[in-house]
Backbone:
């Protein structure tokens, strides 16, 4: 059994008396695509915010590659190898696509103020390596032709892909994707599906996918975890989850019944 | 390389600056010196506000601390200018770093107000700590000479300003094109996203404050000698208006814009000095025009119309009034559900 890339142990969170998460456990293996689904208000985004350090849990802990990260600053957790994308586009507006990617390498670069300002050789060399890596990463996601455009000139779907590339470029161990497929057309969805598989196969990174687009989750995820009202109510391969009575009742039921009636 | 490319234009400006002492009278030389000093102030302000996005108003205070630091180290301790000048700048940088730690827990208007309060506080110190600062009357700085160099004091001082301004211009230019500069812009454009890439917010903002303080402190040291005199009103709130106006006119998030803005504002103000009341009216008019119609500053116009001006612009484009991307019509959930 492989050691988990990410382990969540008994995490509970409450906001002013409202229990948002109640003893949630989660183990994600390296190179796994894990779906995290559940009806609105199930606590998916809260769990994600706990993992990346924005919320501090009332109980429980989170381990990244066996290292406890609970209570650390978001930037420190990112430094340890946790990447994420957001529900809304978070490309830096004042940068080109290429510069956004280069910013993604922040945690892997070391140039300090003096070396940068004095344009020392170490800085120039690092800058060259950074740019080269950024171009490669853009090629990987098929966006190389947009390198010099401002990020805001891209379509929404393209911005999401660039954001994923920006996160992947520093080779994190685990990446949290918060509703990456929102707003994608059906055609784009198929491409996106392929991209996620390619990321898993070539990068060996563990992906945690929060998504409302059930088809994407069922297609691409190795395992799926279902949250409802802050509790984990099911976990398993997509087919198991799809047929789980509790899950159908809590979440899929309405939609499936609507489709089949 | 286009004829009016950025590099060519800057080299011509540098050449003009180099020969200025040979052709200018002492008043014009003083104005040249002032432009260089305000270029430093504008660059410092731009690094903090234009690049790192921190709406802070402590720049005038740092300017004053640099001037007082440089002057008082000479007066009270008899240090030579060559030591007092860098020391004054470092004191300003250190104060910039120090105030950043309490200030940076705040953001937006609260940061603006607390730094404004700090600027007023330094004014109060300059005015009332008479034993050290000589109070409202200010004090004369010791005469410096550039022996054994064969230049008069004003010419020597001008070349010193030029040397420092060129060096710190290049430094800033390099800095904003590095990972540090990208971290500044990242913090400005999205704090949460910046953190998710491993950028430490407090450290990055503190760095911006410190560097900005250093630039203002250097400018203060040069200014104290240019005037030969230091008094509180030289570093009051109007200075902040001036620095802010320079980067708005020149271009936020552009190092070259800082130079342009400083040059234009100083020269326009000096040209209008003779006409009573015109200074304020024109200054206000220029600001209105830029705020209303030319948000990107002069540099954005130059960038658009001058071929070869290949400046990487780091100002965030103005937000269009469109609904946020999330509101883009998504495929209805029913269509996307599993078959």
Residues:
């Amino acid at each position: 059994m492989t050691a988990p890339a990410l382990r969540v142990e008994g995490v509970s969170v409450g906001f002013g008396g409202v229990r948002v998460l109640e003893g949630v456990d989660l183990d994600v293996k390296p190179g796994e695509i894990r779906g995290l689904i559940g009806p609105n208000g199930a606590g998916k985004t809260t769990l994600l915010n706990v993992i990346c350090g924005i919320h501090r849990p009332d109980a429980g802990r989170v381990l990244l590659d066996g290292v406890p990260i609970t209570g650390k600053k978001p930037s420190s957790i990112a430094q340890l190898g946790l990447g994420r994308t957001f529900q809304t586009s978070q490309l830096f507006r004042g940068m080109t696509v290429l510069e956004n990617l280069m910013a993604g390498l922040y945690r892997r670069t070391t140039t300090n103020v003096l070396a940068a300002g004095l344009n020392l050789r170490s800085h120039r060399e690092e800058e060259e390596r950074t740019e080269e890596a950024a171009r490669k990463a853009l090629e990987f996601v098929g966006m190389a032709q947009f390198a010099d455009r401002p990020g805001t000139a891209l379509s929404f779907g393209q911005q999401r892909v660039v954001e994923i590339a920006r996160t992947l470029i520093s080779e994190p161990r685990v990446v949290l994707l918060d509703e990456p497929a929102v707003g994608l057309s059906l055609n784009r969805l198929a491409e996106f599906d392929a991209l996620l598989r390619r990321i898993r196969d070539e990068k060996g990174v563990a992906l945690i996918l929060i998504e409302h687009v059930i088809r994407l989750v069922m297609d691409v995820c190795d395992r799926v975890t279902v949250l409802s009202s802050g509790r984990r109510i099911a976990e398993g391969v997509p087919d198991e989850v799809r047929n789980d009575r509790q899950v159908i009742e809590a979440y899929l039921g309405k939609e499936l019944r609507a489709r089949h009636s | 390389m286009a004829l009016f490319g950025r590099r060519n234009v800057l080299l011509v400006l540098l050449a003009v600056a180099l020969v200025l002492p040979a052709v200018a009278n002492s008043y014009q030389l003083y104005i040249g010196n002032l432009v260089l000093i305000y270029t430093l102030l504008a660059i410092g302000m731009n690094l903090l506000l234009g690049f790192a996005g921190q709406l802070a108003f402590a720049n005038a205070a740092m300017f004053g601390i640099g001037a007082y630091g440089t002057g008082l180290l000479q007066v009270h301790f008899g240090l030579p200018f060559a030591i007092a000048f860098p020391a004054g700048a470092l004191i300003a940088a250190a104060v910039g770093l120090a105030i950043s730690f309490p200030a940076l827990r705040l953001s937006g208007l609260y940061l603006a107000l607390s730094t404004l309060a700090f600027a007023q506080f330094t004014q109060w110190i300059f005015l009332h700590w008479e034993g050290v600062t000589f109070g409202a009357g200010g004090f004369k700085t010791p005469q410096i000479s550039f022996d054994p160099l064969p230049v008069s004091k004003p010419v020597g001082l001008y070349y010193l300003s030029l040397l420092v301004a060129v060096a710190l211009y290049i430094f800033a230019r390099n800095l904003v094109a590095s990972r540090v500069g990208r971290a500044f812009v990242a913090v400005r454009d999205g704090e949460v996203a910046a953190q998710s890439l491993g950028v430490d917010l407090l450290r990055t903002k503190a760095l911006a404050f410190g560097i900005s303080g250093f630039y203002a402190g250097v400018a203060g040291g040069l200014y104290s000698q240019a005037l030969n005199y230091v008094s509180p009103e030289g570093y009051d709130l109007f200075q902040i208006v001036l620095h802010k106006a320079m980067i708005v006119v020149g271009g936020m998030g552009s190092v070259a814009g800082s130079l342009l803005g400083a040059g234009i504002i100083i020269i326009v103000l000096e040209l209008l000095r003779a006409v009573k009341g015109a200074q304020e009216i024109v200054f206000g008019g220029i600001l209105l025009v830029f705020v209303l119609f030319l948000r990107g500053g002069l540099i954005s116009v130059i960038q658009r119309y001058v071929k070869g001006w290949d400046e990487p612009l780091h100002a965030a484009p103005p937000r269009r009034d469109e609904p946020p991307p999330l509101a883009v019509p998504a495929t209805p959930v029913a269509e996307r559900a599993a078959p």
Remarks:
- The beta strands of chain A are 6-15, 18-28, 33-37, 59-64, 67-68, 82-85, 174-178, 206-210, 223-228, 231-236.
- Chain A touches chain B through 65 residues (CB under 8 Å).
- The CA atoms of residues 69 and 76 of chain A lie 9 Å apart.
- Chain A has one domain: 6-259.
